[in-house]
Amino acid sequence: MSQTLKQAYDWLMRPALEHVCALGPVMKQRTRLLPRAEGLVLEPGVGTGLNLPLYDPDKVKSVIGIDPSAPYLEMARKRASEAPVPVELVQGTAEKLPLEDNSVDTVLLTYTGCSIPDLDAALAEFRRVLKPSGRVLLCEHGRAREPRVQKVQDLLNPVWRPLAGGCNLNRNIAEKLQEAGFAIEHMENFYMLPRPKFLSWLYFGSARPR
Fold first, then answer.
1. Domain boundaries, the chain
2. I need a labelling partner for 65 at 20 to 30 A (CA). Which of 50, 73, 94, 188 fits?
3. What topology does CATH give the domain 3-209?
4. What CA–CA distance (Å, rounded) separates 185 from 207?
5. DSSP character for 35?
6. Helix or strand run (H / E) with residue 125
7. Beta strand pairing call for 104-110 and 39-44
8. Whole-structure pTM over 0.70, yes or no?
9. pLDDT tens digit string along 176-207?
């Protein structure tokens, strides 16, 4: 894809993704998860900052939001300025975090793990920067439990991924966490919406470094 086409695609996708990520059922899960964050929070894939108004200032010291997209970060700045906690926005990738070892209390992942290009590398980075007492909080869509739905996800993924900004339908988030050296602390699995099942199977919970 040429740079001009990529810019046009990004310009068209930004409002669409913002709309989808702010739908009522999606925001409901965000509001369930965010009160569990504490201390210094790393939010990779902060995007346009939809989570920033939801942090609890009695629990959260500050937030570092990282995203590779400069336009998304620009959209996030207004929410950052109005957030109830201090927020630092950084352009960068989850696979190479500009943070010291054992420096973060919470890594917050909301609908992000599906689109990180190298999720294994990112999870290794999360483990590196987390304190031994820290944890990952997550609300992610991914590989469903039903074999029929899995087949649909595997079939659609090669077409879906380039059309949806790198989003993968079929990542087993819990399995990826365990392979990266995390112990699942709590995990709920359910369909966020009745349809489409291939897109709405959720992993909601937390994990700690082993």
1. 3-209
2. 188
3. Rossmann fold (3.40.50)
4. 5
5. G
6. helix 119-129
7. parallel
8. yes
9. 999 999 999 999 999 998 889 999 999 999 99
